[in-house]
Amino acid sequence: MPDPADFPLGAKITIAELASDVHPVLHRLRAVEPVSWLPALNAWLVTRHDLATAVMRDAQTYTVDHPGFSTAQVVGPSMLSLDGEEHLRQRRPFDAPFRRAAVHNRFRQPVVQHIAQLLAELAPKGEAELRREFAGPVAVKTMMTALGLEGVVETAVLGWYDTIVNAVTQVTAGEPVSEEGRAAFAALRETLLPSLQREPEANLLAAASGASQGLSDEAIVSNAAVLLFGGIETTEGMIANALYFLLTNREWLQRVREDSTLLPAVIEETLRLEPAAGVVDRYATQDTRLGNANIAAGDLVRVSLSGANRDAAVFAEPDQFDPLRPNLREHVAFAQGPHVCLGLHLARLEAQLAVEQVLVRLPSVQLLGTEAAVRAAKPQGLVFRKPEALQVIW
Ligand code: HEM
To answer: Ligand 1 within 6 A of 79 CB?
Structure first.
């Protein structure tokens, strides 16, 4: 265990600070303790862009294959919980269906339809909470399409999702896998298995299964569960965060309305400023030195994507919203290295279509101006960062 006295700034930082207005804290850390020991997290926190990238690219020294990660105990081993050759083997079948062109081919039309239907229902109401009533449903419906679950009731999928997330949280806290957790994953597995048997055009899971090169149905289903988890909460946050930054920035709202080709850059800049997954975790496989820190084998190393994305050594005036910055794409919101987000093209497609259509179909949309609504709209959270609520009127 490192001596907290060696990292006086990190020693003082609380979970509450990290979960709320985290950016000033990350700036302070990056300046003096870019790899700091935070007793509140019982982990290292890496806030510099170069060091964050180095950790994520070095899966030999910093692994996800560790009992400290609980997802595998509930849904079985998957690409998320493995490294090296076995990671590649699990991820490979999904590579082709998740490439940009394949994603646009398969998903543009269904995603447009999901969005149109949701906005047609909201439009007459004149007000909405866009995170729960729009961003979340866009993400859920898209993942259900991806996994061939169109015929299944959405609330059933969300119920399994919540139960499995709770089971993972309990295992992380040292408890055994709950009966409910097992039952929920079994129900999800039974529902997913028929999707695998369809022709590859029918859904992404069938496409992966067709290219599985010996990966068992069981393994495909474990990875499908990971897709579901990877693709819902994060994408909900990504869409909500993008709407937040646009609705709080009149100049850019106007510019995007006049020229929708600016939208992809606007979305990238919102990913940089507030990545929906603010932290990724690794365990050190050996004693090693990173920046100013001596890390011991077995230590938890938390990489702050939020911190790396506002590193002034890479992004000039890092707290400014500037979609025209030349090196926009150097943000690490989707991570780096072997575990770089598999769903990034799909997530970008969803966010672009979602924001574009909100502006077209709710042309006078604006944030509700009350103090409470403005406060709730600001992205927050320790790992997943998004508005608590995005209350709007039009
Ligand atoms: C369609 C939506 C999405 C899907 C299907 C998806 C799927 C996945 C999967 C399967 C992985 C694990 C890859 C591996 O371990 O090899 C992953 C990793 C990751 N995803 Fe996504 N994702 C989606 C959206 C997002 C969004 C919107 C964000 C954030 C803005 C995000 C951030 C990440 C990050 C940071 C990782 C790396 C995790 C780590 O290295 O520990 N993803 N994603």
So the answer is: yes
List phi, psi (to 5°) of 89: -60, -40
Closest Cα partner for 270 from 349, 188, 160, 348? 348
Report the amino acid identity of residue 132: R
Q: Is 51 exposed, middle or buried (0-12, 13-18, 19+ CB in 10 A)?
A: buried
Instruction: Say if ligand 1 is within 6 A of residue 334 CB.
Output: yes
**Which residue has the least CA distance to atom 10 on ligand 1?**
227
H or E segment to which residue 105 belongs: helix 100-122
- Which class does domain 4-393 fall in? mainly alpha
267 lines ligand 1 (CB under 6 A): no
Give the model's pLDDT for residue 212: 75
| Domain chopping of the chain, boundaries | 4-393
Helix 263-273 vs helix 217-247: crossing angle, to nearest 10:
100
- Output the residue whose Cα is nearest ligand 1's atom 26: 234
- 8 Cα–ligand 1 center, Å: 33
Strand boundaries in the chain, DSSP class E = 35-38, 43-46, 62-63, 127-129, 279-284, 288-290, 293-295, 300-304, 366-367, 391-393
Cβ(263)–Cβ(328) below 8 Å: no
| Residue 70: per-residue pLDDT | 86
For residue 173, how many other CB atoms are within 10 A of its CB? 8
* Residue whose entry in the numeric block shows the structure tokens 């990350």: 26
In SS3 terms, 195-223 reads as HHCCCCCCCHHHHHHHCCCCCCHHHHHHH
| Number of the ligand 1 atom closest to the C-alpha atom of 275 | 30
Cα distance between residue 263 and residue 149, in whole Å = 30
Report the C-alpha gap between 115 and 136 in whole angstroms: 11
Buried b vs exposed e over 123-141: b needs ≥16 C-beta within 10 Å? eeeeebbbbebbbbbbbbb
Please tell me the distance between residue 230's alpha carbon and the centre of ligand 1 in angstroms. Answer: 5
> Which residues in the chain show pLDDT less than 50?
none
How confident is the model at residue 68, as a pLDDT?
Answer: 85
Contact indicator for 195, 205 with CB cutoff of 8 Å: yes
- C-alpha to C-alpha distance for 95 and 318, rounded to whole angstroms: 33
